[in-house]
Design a protein that fits this description.
heterodimer, A: mainly alpha, Globin-like, about 75% helix, elongated, B: mainly alpha, Fumarate Reductase Iron-sulfur Protein, Chain B, domain 2, binds iron/sulfur cluster
Chain lengths: ~180, ~550
């Protein structure tokens, strides 16, 4: 795994660069804050994002399974799903990992004795990133569905007891209950 | 055909990765985004309250159906408030834009929108103030940070002053003590002059003004609900509570936010109150009454205007007067206490017809409530525990690993920090604080206060609540915390979805729910479940039988 070796050497730089790209999706004043503040409680967006990217990248390199990748990716997507991003913008940062890896390793690859082999491995890596993006979309959709269900249940949650008390709820009886009248 | 398809990279490049507005904040137009704002107020509610410009309108429409002279109304409204409230004028003048407050607002931290930095939020209004009320601003315009009032500016005000929960966290960090919450309050008042309110505030206020509580629950239904809890309590404990209603000449009037009576999990807290009062009645002859007319401790008028807040607040005192009680005991509420502590006295006070509150059980004089005559139940219960007046079995809460959320208003607004913790630690064996910087005076807001706890602005609520949830997540992962306890009805309503989104393993409870679980009632049967009908530790098998 020639590529793995190259990446290992540049791992920190790659993750930092990737983080920079994600941070650049925010307005410049916000980006400055996200980069500067290291306290995880004062800056949950920045630190969670960094943490997520770190774990996901590590997972990609170590052949983590879908569940692991998904749970590592969840925190950053979960945040972006409630911020001012279109769906594509919320997850597209994942694709950028390809550019980042290529940029960071450009010199090493061009000098490498086994360039062909590296390119092949890169292709495989890119495919994984594509897969990761699909996982990202799934997480994003789940988050959005959750928000919709919160919205839909909002009034009901607030007044459920009252409605029930006033006998205003006609809930579906348990399956098999006798009081369901047969179709006539 | 394949040649016609764009390359993947081309497509990707179409996505604009850099979000930076190309212009300064002043030139960045407001983009009213769904999920971030609450629906416009219904004309019916606005009319009922006698507030101006009642009409249907939609924030997404270009035309907000404003009166023709709306600019004049804004100017006059601003002028009047600058004259009337000295602090407001000072806040307009003294900000040095040092930025100390900039990253302290949960809405900025969570949304990443620079206009949610407190300093910028205030600048939205201050820029117009400079233009209209200062020489420099008038002469130099933009260079002096001034801009004229326009429809876009007005829309920006509406959008961002309803993205501030008036929590005051920013003011803790400002070297000049500038309180952006006060600026938001003024801005909302001015917006109200044009009929620009949100329905989640206007309708509860109208209901409260008429029926006495936010949901418009009528007196008999209010009593029915409490009776319903009495039945549940009897099933769980074998004890029959006998709450008193509208009792003339009772010693004490109890008023709690109606959320405790109608919405889970606040209802379990209401059951805790009932148990506590029954215990005290049997043991010490405690004489407390509920009122089905003064049935709302919350005061959404506070989020509308000083005048509306005053009207709603006066209802509680009118009821206390009518019943002839000595003083008022208040339930677990947030903003009700800010209203009481900060405004009540000048608005409707002093409540001379009431007595200075003294606990009839311990003899403790609540000096802090000398003038308002209203005591927070957390203080009251803490005092009882301190004097050994309650028999408690905290083991019954052993399934709970609690942390405590300081609600902005009791914590920052009235300095009530230790009493609830004292109670919590006496009724629950497992308690872990969230990290400093996220609790006590620096507590992070729930993200849905000041009337923003609607259903349609979920994105705003989830983003604004992120800093709070993030600290909860930390103690959940570190100590296994599974319960977020608080003394505020809005918190109890808004935390369940917030937790479900960010830390689904953590549930939400009020303080007196846990008190109710631990309190050993006279003549109670062996308890096998808590107030939620969930098995007590070690009782799982008995339930099944
Ligand atoms: S901390 Fe105070 S003085 Fe500094 S920018 Fe904020 S409001 Fe202005
Ligand atoms: S009062 Fe609270 S919500 Fe409003 S600007 Fe300050 S920190 Fe933000």
């Amino acid at each position: 795994m020639a590529l793995a070796e190259l990446i290992e050497q540049k791992k920190k730089a790659i993750i930092n660069k990737w983080y920079e790209h994600v941070v650049a999706t925010y307005p410049s004043d916000t980006a400055r804050f996200l980069k500067k503040e290291n306290d995880q409680f004062a800056n949950p967006v920045g630190t969670t994002t960094m943490h997520s990217l770190d774990a996901v990248f590590e997972g990609l390199l170590n052949g983590a399974d879908i569940e692991t990748l998904s749970s590592d990716l969840d925190p950053v997507i979960r945040i972006r799903a409630v911020q001012d991003f279109t769906p594509s913008k919320a997850v597209s940062f994942i694709f950028l990992l390809k550019n980042v890896v290529r940029e960071c390793l450009a010199k090493e690859i061009s000098k490498h004795k086994n360039k062909k082999e590296i390119e092949k491995e890169l292709d495989v890596f890119y495919t994984k990133v594509d897969g990761l993006c699909l996982i990202g979309f799934d997480i994003y959709m789940k988050c959005r569905e959750q928000l919709l269900s919160f919205q839909a249940n909002h009034i009901k949650d607030r007044t459920y007891r009252l409605l029930k008390k006033a006998d205003l709820l006609s809930e579906v009886p348990e399956v098999g209950a006798e009081n369901i009248s047969p179709n006539v | 055909m394949a040649d016609d398809l764009p390359k993947a990279d081309d497509l990707l490049n179409k996505i604009d990765h850099n979000n930076s507005p190309p212009t300064s904040w002043m030139d960045t137009p407001v983009n009213i985004r769904k999920g971030m704002y609450c629906y416009a107020s219904s004309p019916k509610s606005v009319k009922y309250l006698g507030l101006p410009n009642a009409r249907p309108w939609n924030p997404l429409d270009d035309d907000w159906k404003l009166p023709d002279n709306w600019k004049e109304i804004v100017f006059e409204g601003l002028k009047e408030r600058l004259d009337k409230f000295r602090s407001f004028k000072v806040f307009m003048d003294i900000c040095v834009r040092c930025g100390a407050c900039a990253d302290k607002c949960h809405f900025f931290i969570g949304t990443g929108d620079p206009k949610n930095m407190p300093v910028l939020r205030a600048e939205l209004l201050r820029s117009v103030y400079r233009n209209d009320f200062t020489k420099a601003g008038n002469l130099l315009g933009k260079i002096a940070g001034a801009r004229p009032m326009t429809l876009d500016v007005l829309k920006e005000w509406w959008y961002y002053f309803f993205q501030c929960t008036e929590c005051r966290r920013c003011s803790v960090f400002c070297p000049y003590g500038i309180d952006t919450a006060e600026i938001t309050i003024m801005a909302r008042e001015i917006l109200n002059l044009l009929g620009l309110n949100i329905d989640w505030i206007a309708t509860p206020v109208a209901n409260c003004y008429r029926t006495g509580n936010h949901l418009g629950i009528q007196p008999h239904a209010f009593k029915d609900m409490l009776d319903f809890f009495v039945e549940d309590i009897e099933e769980i404990t074998g004890v029959n509570c006998e709450p008193q209603y509208n009792k003339k000449g009772a010693d004490i009037l109890f008023i709690t936010p109606s959320g405790d009576v109608f919405a889970d999990p606040g209802t379990y807290t209401a059951m805790g109150y009932l148990l506590l009062f029954q215990y005290l009645k049997e043991k010490y002859g405690f004489d407390v009454t509920w009122s089905t007319y003064g049935s709302e401790g919350g005061n959404f008028g506070f989020f509308t205007s000083h005048e509306t807040m005053k009207r709603l607040n006066s209802k509680m005192y009118a009821e206390a007067k009518r019943l002839g009680v000595k003083w008022i005991l208040g339930g677990e509420c947030g903003h009700m206490w800010r209203v009481i502590n900060q405004y009540m006295d000048t608005m409707n006070g002093p409540a001379d017809f009431l007595e200075e509150p003294v606990s009839p059980i311990t003899g403790t004089r609540f000096e802090n409530a000398k003038s308002t005559k209203m005591v927070h139940i957390a203080e009251f219960t803490a005092d009882l525990i301190k004097h050994n007046k309650l028999e408690l079995d905290p083991v019954r809460n052993d399934n709970v690993i609690a942390t405590f959320h300081d609600s902005c208003n009791p914590a920052r607004g009235m300095g009530m920090l230790d009493e609830p913790r004292f109670v919590l630690q006496n009724v629950c064996n497992n308690f872990h604080e969230m990290p400093p910087g996220t609790i006590r005076e620096q507590t992070f807001c729930c993200g849905s206060g000041s009337g923003l706890n609607a259903g349609e602005n979920m994105e705003l609520r989830m983003a604004g609540g992120l800093p709070r949830a993030n600290a909860v997540k930390y103690v959940h992962e570190k100590y296994g915390v599974n319960m977020l306890t608080c003394v505020c009805a809005i918190d109890r309503a808004v935390f369940p979805p917030l937790m479900e989104y960010w830390v689904p393993e953590v549930d939400v409870s009020g303080l007196h729910e846990l008190v109710g679980n631990a309190l050993i009632m006279q003549g109670e049967k062996k308890r096998t479940t808590d107030l939620r009908f969930e098995p007590l530790p070690g009782m799982e098998d008995e339930i099944d039988e």
